[in-house]
Amino acid sequence: MIIVMEENASEPQIRTVTERLIELGFDIHRSTGERYTILGAVGSRPADERDFELMEGVHEVIRVSAPYKLASRAFHPEGTRIKIRDVEIGGDNVVVMAGPCTVESKEQVETVAAEVSKLGVKVLRGGAFKPRTSPYSFQGLGEPGLKLLREAADRNGMLTISEIMESSQIPMFLKYVDILQVGARNMQNFNLLRDLAKLAKPILLKRGPAATIEETLLSAEYLMAGGNHQVIICERGIKTFETYTRNTLDISAIPVIKKLSHLPVVADPSHGTGRRDKVPPMARAAVAAGADGLLIEVHNCPEKALCDGAQSLLPEQFSRLMGQLRMIAPAIERTVD
Ligand code: PEP
Ligand code: MN
Known about the structure:
The protein is of the alpha/beta class. Helices cover 32% and strands 18% of the residues. The chain folds into two domains: 2-63, Phospho-2-dehydro-3-deoxyheptonate aldolase, domain 1 (Alpha-Beta Plaits); 82-332, Alpha-Beta Barrel (TIM Barrel). The protein has eleven helices and 14 strands. It has an eight-stranded parallel beta barrel with strand order 7-8-9-10-11-12-13-14, surrounded by five helices. Helix 7 links the parallel strand 11 and strand 12 (231-235). The longest helix is centred in the C-terminal third of the chain and has 14 residues, at 315-328. The relative contact order is 0.13. The structure holds phosphoenolpyruvate and manganese (II) ion (MN).
């Protein structure tokens, strides 16, 4: 943190700021120029810049280092690779995870799993506990849904990803799920993050609908500070003034997070757009922008889906998209298996 004092700051004012910084554990490097005195505060403890901005004689406070440490690229200059059986997320291969929004029945999840597996997908998605805006909407099948997801994945040699909503569900998820998804609405459920931090399981952390990139990385930091370094960040669209799409998929967040952090970044163009016809272009854009993976909703009969049918691709649309992604990836020295 750098504190620039006012031009006419008095020596007692400078001393008060310095003493406060020392009290907080910072080492101070003072430089006195012709007009300004600058205090360089070096330390590892976080401090609230606003406290200093309000002090007498302070002109400006400039934060130098990011408030997250373990999630920052400075901590781990190489990109993190997360290996789960034969799948590596964060390597050269862009990992496509696909499946229905929600597990609805054995027949539905088995059909979709077989379709996407045939196209090379190795991670099957499917929610069993759904965070629905309305309490009257379908809330998911619960544990039987997770079991169906697991069985469909096993039949096709796939991994599973599903959303966990609360800490009490952890033992159940450990039985059926390979990647635990923290949904956008729970990104700042710090108690849940602290409990997931104790697990030796990869976590896919979705960016909250109104979360900044820094807030997202601080949520990742909760998981990492508690001991779980297998964290994947997911850009799934944020709330803006635009109403045409369900959310605004922030493609630029992909290169921004890749620069700030070593964690793999996945994009979810299904929730990011909310409309089936917009999913393939945004999926292509996300891969071109450097995403390490995609999370895509696919349904065998989207018009009858119990959740998010409008944004679910039909298997033939998904097949066409996979072909396109396989052509785009080599342009940026990546592959799509
Ligand atoms: C989902 O993946 O089905 C989901 C509910 O996602 P989000 O948390 O991004 O809304
Ligand atoms: Mn969904």
